[in-house]
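Dear colleagues,

As part of the handover before I leave the project, I'm documenting each prediction I ran so the next person doesn't have to rerun anything. This entry is a single chain, and its sequence is reproduced below.
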Amino acid sequence: KIGGKMKYFNFLFKVKAFLLIIVIVVFITLTDNLSFSQMELSRSNTVMDIVNSISSKNIERIIRKLQSFETRHSLSDTLSETKGIGAARRWIFNEFNKISQENQNRLKVYYQTFMVDRKARGRRPAFKVLMKNVVAELPGANPALTDRAFVIGGHYDSIAFGRGKSPDEIQAPGANDDATGVAIAMELARVMSKYRFDATVIFVAFAGEEEGLFGSSWFAQEASKKNMRIDGMIANDIVGNIEGGNGDINNKIIRCFSEDPWDSPSRQLARYIRRTCKKYVEGMEVLNIFRNDRYGRGGDHTPFNIEGYAAVRFTELNENYDRQHSNRDIIDFVSIPYVTKVCKTTGAAFASLALAPEAPSNVRVRRSYIKSSDSEGYKRGYNTIISWEHPFKEQDLAGFKIAIRETTSPYYQYFIPVGKVKKYEVKGYSIDNYSFGVLAFDEDGNESLISVPPPLPKRKRVIFIDK
């Protein structure tokens, strides 16, 4: 009996040892190939400092000040120091200058001035009007990367409807639409100008959004004419209300709109923002909406999309349409803690991008081939080979990661660190069943946007020839 028990225990020991070996092998394989969890926990100290330095009190101060101008309609008073569009843009300009002076004059503050003739378009206003974007530019510190730029914007004009009255007679406080977006741009200019980034970061208060996206259109078109390289743009517009007109309340989700197609640069930017929010901003979630904007509406990101730039829009989850374009758009209906979290989400994403290495280019994927023993020479393999190009300009470049997702998944599920190489064979992942991309990352954990292969060419129609 004793001998039988010993054999039984020996058998159990061997089974447990075998299972333990399997667990160890699986663990090593997963940590070697699918380091998703490790990647998500890798945080940049600089980005964390920026997120933690954002002040809700300062955000509230800016919103209250912009509301105090009573109206910021594009056709309102330009001479008064206390009321109208002119007073508002001068105040924003002066605030940007103060921020710059407090931070070794790192910001280049200027107006972008342009003339709009709405009569030619048959829309309001039916005469010429001078408009001005207010811009604060933080030049990149890496001479090899100063041509890269990221834009953070909101529009400072406001509107409210009222028949038979001039723009100056109608109260248009615009606290949520869009003093919240301008407050985010200004607060991030204050915080981020204390640091140095590889790439250039531009903070903009756009003019004329309510009249037809004029300020953002001028900025994007001028950038395109100058062959300016804008690797990412975000428009914060209507980002302060947490209680919808239907009574729903939510202070933990912000919508991020991005244009088609499935792997467009804007869509990749939206995915990136969602991931960085998870890493850096507690109590906030980015809900990616895979369309350009809310149905039938538009925002300041759209002109950037038209010019071929990656651009997305943030808008609160629960809109209250009764408070939009109305004299009821006041700070009483704005949640400052919610705007602060949106500001942190924006800052985390764009600080990471401005610190990160340049994204890979010319990404290609192909099926692996195995040397065959027969006369054919080679036969098709079951692995995927990815190659890409990169200038290796950054001294702190740590390497690259292969990003993998199932074709039905909207988000990348697996990340494989591969070091400083330009080609990698992904074993066990068929080119037919997965979508692939590549990103660059630095020693502090900052990651570039994911670059993807070009779409497959469409098959041509079969042409039949009559006899």
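The CA atoms of residues 76 and 168 lie 5 Å apart. The longest strand covers residues 378-389.

All the best with the project,
I.
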